[in-house]
Amino acid sequence: MLTGGPLGTDLYKLEQFHSHWGCTDDKGSEHTVDGVSYAGELHLVHWNTTKYESFAKAASAPDGLAVLGVFFEASDNAHPELEKITNLLPFVVHKGDRVTLPDACDPGKLLPTTTSYWTYEGSLTTPPCSESVIWIVFKTPIEVSRDQLDAMRNLNCYDVKDECPCNELNGKVINNFRPPLPLGNRVLREISGH
Questions:
Q1: Distances in Å between the alpha carbon of 38 and those of 45, 138, 140, 165?
Q2: Domains defined for the chain, CATH in brackets
Q3: How would you label 49-82 residue by residue, b for 16+ Cβ within 10 Å and e otherwise?
Q4: How far apart are CA 16 and CA 44, in angstroms?
Q5: What is the mean pLDDT of residues 117-142?
Q6: ω into 128 cis (within 30 of 0)
Q7: Cβ neighbours around 118 below 10 Å, total
Q8: Which residues contact 148 (CB under 8 A, 6 or more apart)?
Q9: Positive or negative torsion for Cα 157, 39, 115, 7
Q10: Which transformation does this protein catalyse, written as a reaction (predicted)?
Q11: Cα separation, 131 vs 35, whole angstroms
Q12: Mean pLDDT score of the chain, rounded to an integer?
């Protein structure tokens, strides 16, 4: 559960987490820092259980969701907690494939050790792009190995029963990120941690 900081006293429960990445190590994050992108970005999506009875109801409310954003920095070092997931990706290469994690994944271990972050009120980056998110984007990236990124880039966007769409990406899930949009009237706050 998340609480405190920009979330006040409300409690937010983790619903799901997912990642965005690019075809190269210099793009893939949905947020940028001074115009610079990272190889990818992890989103841990939480919903406000204090005010709403379901994720669906929270997703349409301005204070309904809180998303933690964590940058992926390409390196030679595998991230041990993420490895529990990326090691299984070769078994779920097609849309609809499923696998059970043999070892529990601790989402807290996917966060950087330094807790400085930026926060703002914004929208989901995928449809329906609802203006319902309190974003908390960590300033420090986590190191992710190029092998881990390649495992993500090797996923297919089509069902095993379907033909490959044979597009410019050969049916791969690559560049599954939305380019950053202007902040507009949003207020970006910087919070220093330890």
A1: 20, 12, 11, 28
A2: 5-191 (3.10.200.10)
A3: ebebeebeebbeeebbbbbbbbbbbbbeebbebb
A4: 6
A5: 90
A6: yes
A7: 16
A8: 78, 79, 82, 83, 86
A9: negative
A10: hydrogencarbonate + H(+) = CO2 + H2O
A11: 23
A12: 92
- Give residue 193's pLDDT band: very low, low, confident or very high (50, 70, 90): confident
82 or 193, which is more confident: 82
Residue 180, token pair as written in the block: 């950053």
pLDDT digits (tens, 9 = 90+) for 64-79: 999 999 999 999 999 9
pLDDT at 194: 65
185 vs 168, residue with greater confidence: 185
Residue found by looking up tokens 């881990």 in the block: 148
> Which residue has 């494939």 as its token pair?
97
- 65, 59 in Cβ contact below 8 A? yes
State pLDDT tens for residues 26-65.
999 999 999 999 999 999 999 999 999 999 999 999 899 9
